């Protein structure tokens, strides 16, 4: 097979050595040194799609999206198969980060995904929508004090967070995060569905809604559920962290772990704080599950504007003052 006048062949030993060394350096976080080696590899074998795929991957790790797009496009130009290549997925991530929607659509279609609306002139250049990818989980701060939360997939590279993350994550309910394409673990359910866990790459769109922590006295689970419904009806969220957050070691978090219900958004679906070796700043453990004694004191996360949050809590108490109480409200993120 001839590409650019050259016969395609297996990469040279020099190419392999430079590439192998580069990925060792990437694993150590030495991106600049790795970049020099991968650039040398691309100079040695410029007709090899893997040369440019590797450079695109490095630029993705560095969040240098312009360079990732450029290298990714060179990689796909050299592909010898029509669909399904991971090179196109990396192009899609870079295009999404840059809001280059025509290229993002082209990338997802070339990978083999259906993108609704591409046949309509008004929608062809717009943001991909209506892909119906369902629920998934995302690991926030994967290199640090990682936390797995639930969300709604907007497209193959973005997820809207629907859990209320712990304040240690620095993330909020309703934020949109850019995530990687290869799942790093999954959450399984007794009914059979399994939900992938993607690693966050970066924040794509912030949320203006602050996160609060409050201590509740809820006599029954129904009292707790009432606050969650009240917040949802107002267009915001409440989550009983005493039930919804569990501690996992990193190895467990990155494996196939059960989720109580698996519908990606209810308080019964645990999200996981998986910083290895210690329980994190809030010390949450899952409690109050099926068959366990109900504990009236609950630590609850609330996502609501400052002008609304106290009214929500007061309204919740007013509906059943004998069984409900709140105290120690604090904005935490």
Automatic annotation (TrEMBL):
Gene3D superfamilies: Tetratricopeptide repeat domain (1.25.40.10). Residues 264-275 have a biased composition (Basic and acidic residues). Residues 260-289 are annotated as: Disordered. InterPro entries: TPR-like_helical_dom_sf (IPR011990). This is Tetratricopeptide repeat protein. The lineage of its organism: Bacteria, Bacillati, Actinomycetota, Actinomycetes, Kitasatosporales.
């Amino acid at each position: 097979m001839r590409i650019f006048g050259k016969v395609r062949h297996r990469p040279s030993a020099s190419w392999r050595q430079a590439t192998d060394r580069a990925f060792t350096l990437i694993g150590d976080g030495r991106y600049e040194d790795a970049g020099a080696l991968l650039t040398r590899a691309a100079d040695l074998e410029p007709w090899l799609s893997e040369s440019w795929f590797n450079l695109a991957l490095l630029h993705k790790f560095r969040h240098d999206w312009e360079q990732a797009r450029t290298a990714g496009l060179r990689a796909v130009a050299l592909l010898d198969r029509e669909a399904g290549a991971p090179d196109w997925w990396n192009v899609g991530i870079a295009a999404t980060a840059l809001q280059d929607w025509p290229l993002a659509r082209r990338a997802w279609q070339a990978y083999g995904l259906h993108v609704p609306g591409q046949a309509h002139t008004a929608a062809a250049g717009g943001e991909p929508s209506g892909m119906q990818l369902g629920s998934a989980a995302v690991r926030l701060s994967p290199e640090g004090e990682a936390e797995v939360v639930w969300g709604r997939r907007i497209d193959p590279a973005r997820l809207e967070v629907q859990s209320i993350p712990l304040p240690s994550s620095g993330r909020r309910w309703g934020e949109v995060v850019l995530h990687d394409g290869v799942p790093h673990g999954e959450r399984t359910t007794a009914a059979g569905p399994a939900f992938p866990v993607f690693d966050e790459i970066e924040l794509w769109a912030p949320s203006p809604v602050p996160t609060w922590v409050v201590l509740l006295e809820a006599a029954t689970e129904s009292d707790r559920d009432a606050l969650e419904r009240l917040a949802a009806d107002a267009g915001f969220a409440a989550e009983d962290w005493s039930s919804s957050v569990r501690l996992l070691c990193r190895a467990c978090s990155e494996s196939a772990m059960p989720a109580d219900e698996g519908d990606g958004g209810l308080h019964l679906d645990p999200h996981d704080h998986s910083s290895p070796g210690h329980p994190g700043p809030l010390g949450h453990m899952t409690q109050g599950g099926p068959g366990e004694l109900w504990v009236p004191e609950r630590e609850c996360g609330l996502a609501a504007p400052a002008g609304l949050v106290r009214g929500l809590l007061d309204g919740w108490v007013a509906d059943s003052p004998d069984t409900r109480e709140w105290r120690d409200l604090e904005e935490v993120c």
